[in-house]
């Protein structure tokens, strides 16, 4: 049986960089393209960051620049966490790898429509590119196997009490994706906050001694510093790679089917993922929501990925 084709839509971002690292080399997934959106930083920064990560890891994967802002709301970025570049910490060689000329939304449509098999779409940033692609060509939904996203929470947010950053940054895009009728798995703060990259984890990965482990260590030392300053944690939660770890080994997460709705009309609670955990509303389940994580298994998957470089 061949590998499952996937597109990673991201906004690098330290944890997005690790998601790229995991997705590019494993026995389960074939990463056919990286599409980039504005989110953790502006589109120029996030595209450059994706290119730098691919070049540093010697990955021959095409990178496509996508939407530079959300569908409706004003733009927000996460400079307090990821720095002015969006990927502060590592020092990269002069950038030679170039982005593709094709716009990310056009690429998503083309790749899906031309594929003989269904493709998994993973989003680790605002869902703008995917939502726009589905609006532009609704037929692509027939070619999407599933959507796996890092975003949302059924408990407390991280930019407001109600909302997680990726959903808050473009609630309308998330609304379109959650109402697409496609299988969707939400990997939210409820589980990603349990995968804290403590200094002991950084030391463990440093001992691997590959170019990927060096990049990981450089990324995490800055990430942990900013997370300590903003949230008070000794280890930053490694949000985005959990989506990839789940696809590599679904037993890393416990998921629960629920009916979920994206709040886009409230001022106080814009971007909240209202997940009916107890099935009060008796509505059809439209999403699988991650509710627990095997952190030991997750870090083993990260370690295995770092050793592949």
Commentary on this structure:
There is one protein chain. The protein has 309 residues and is an alpha/beta fold. The chain has one domain (4-307): Inosine-uridine Nucleoside N-ribohydrolase, Chain A (Alpha-Beta Complex), CATH 3.90.245. Helix content is 38%, strand content 18%. The chain contains 12 helices and 12 strands. The chain has an 8-stranded mixed sheet with strand order 3-2-1-4-5-6-12-9, sandwiched between helices. A two-stranded antiparallel sheet has the order 7-8. Helix 1 runs antiparallel to helix 10 and helix 9 packs antiparallel against helix 10 (211-231). The radius of gyration is 18 Å and the shape is globular.
How is the largest sheet built, in terms of strand order?
A: 3-2-1-4-5-6-12-9
CATH T-level topology: Inosine-uridine Nucleoside N-ribohydrolase, Chain A
Total of domains: 1
Strand segment tally: 12
**Strand count, sense and closure of the main sheet?**
8 strands, mixed
Oligomer: single chain
User: Fraction of residues in helices?
Assistant: 25-40%
Q: What is the top-level CATH class? A: Alpha Beta
Annotated CATH homologous superfamily: Ribonucleoside hydrolase-like
Cα end-to-end separation: 24 Å
pLDDT averaged over residues: 94
Q: Could you list the spans in which at least 5 consecutive residues all have pLDDT below 50?
A: none
The gross shape turns out to be globular
Class per helix and strand makeup:
alpha/beta
Radius of gyration: 18 Å
Order of helices and strands: EHEHEHHEHEHHEHEHHEHEEEEH
Indicate the proportion of strand residues: 15-25%
